[in-house]
Amino acid sequence: MKTLLLARHAKSDWGFSGLADHDRPLNARGRRDAPAMARRLVDDDIALDHIVSSTATRARSTADEYAAAFGIAVLDEALLYAASARSILAIAAALPEQSDVAMLVGHNPGMSDAVAELTGEYAQLPTCAVAECAVDIGSWDELVDGTGRLLRIHTP
């Protein structure tokens, strides 16, 4: 059994004219929500052992808060930026075998769509939400559409 956490980045700041979408930082709410969500996952005894993040500034900043709370590193994956559900699940299928509880941090609509593809249940993820999905597989490369079960959605 594996657990896949599909996380949408925290709220970003639209107040910088001329800044590329990829480079938008978190706003004040995002800077408050990201560490609070990380603490909530720790308090819920989720044994997160691997994090992969979109390279977008807002996603990476969110992932850094989870990494700090769990004392682990973040791996960057450029393909998570504006990724489709299919791409997100392909990235999950390539996770390292020693990982049992992994998190992908990215963007909507891809993250919400990936929850639906994986579990058969659509969940609109607000900013900084985390969908916790149980996947009845022994190896990440066995992950395919419909193999997961949505356990819960953590929201700020």
Work out the radius of gyration: 14 Å
E-strand count: 6
Q: What's the average pLDDT?
A: 96
Strand order of the biggest β-sheet = 3-2-4-1-5-6
Distance from N terminus to C terminus (CA atoms, Å) equals: 27 Å
Number of helices: 4
Helix-strand makeup class: alpha/beta
Helix content: 25-40%
Quaternary state of this entry equals single chain
Indicate the low-confidence ranges by residue numbers. Answer: none
Beta-sheet strand percentage?
A: 15-25%
Q: Mind summarizing the main beta sheet?
A: 6 strands, mixed
Quick one: overall form?
globular
The helix/strand series, from N terminus to C terminus, equals: EHEHEHEHEE
Could you explain how this protein is built, in words?
With 156 residues, the protein is α/β, with parallel strands linked by helices. It is built from 4 helices and 6 strands, in the order βαβαβαβαββ. The protein has a 6-stranded mixed β-sheet, with helices on both faces. α2 links the parallel β2 and β3. The longest helix is centred in the first third of the chain and has 16 residues. It starts with a strand and ends with a strand.
